[in-house]
Design a protein that fits this description.
- By secondary structure, the protein is an alpha+beta fold.
- The chain is 32% helix and 32% strand.
- A three-stranded antiparallel sheet has the order 1-2-3, with no helix packed on it.
- Strand 1 and strand 2 form a beta hairpin.
- Helix 1 crosses helix 2.
- The longest helix is centred in the middle third of the chain and has 23 residues.
- It is globular, with a radius of gyration of 17 Å.
- It starts with 7 loop residues before the first strand and ends with a strand.
- The relative contact order is 0.15.
């Protein structure tokens, strides 16, 4: 277990715009900056969930010796009508490409990510019902 703190910095660019920078110097635009639309803070949460579970699923399938060649994750979130407008329902669709992918192994990988490894899923799952589905493309 690590006690390492994570730190990001968000610099205001006027209006609703910020540029966020992580400790590695990677930047992301949040909101509208100089007339250019960016990602909303709540969309960033969904992207974080997609990335978190995606890393898990790809890694687990690799360890299961599955021939995964592409993975696309679509995450949709429904927010509460009243403030603080948290996500109340989240749907995750995994689309997987690879020859001979086993549906059982895919289901196991998704379950392990959702129930054990993905921190974003655990945090968002505290306030939202998370539903998952998958499609294996040949």
């Amino acid at each position: 277990m690590t006690d390492e703190w994570k730190e990001v910095v968000a610099n205001w660019k006027g209006g609703s715009g910020f540029v966020g920078t992580n400790s590695s110097g990677v930047q992301v635009q949040i909101g509208n900056v100089e007339g250019q639309p960016g990602t909303s803070p709540m969309e960033l949460l969904l992207l974080g969930l997609a990335g978190c579970t995606g890393v898990d699923v790809a890694s687990i399938l690799n360890k299961m010796r599955q021939n995964l060649v592409n993975l696309r994750i679509t995450v949709r979130g429904l927010r509460a009508p009243e403030h603080p407008r948290v996500y109340t329902e989240i749907n995750i669709l995994y689309e997987l490409w690879g020859e001979g992918l086993s549906p059982k192994f895919v289901e196991d990988a998704i379950a392990l990510s959702e129930n054990k490894y993905c921190s974003a899923s655990a945090m968002l799952g505290a306030s939202a019902e998370i539903n998952t589905s998958y499609i294996i493309h040949t």
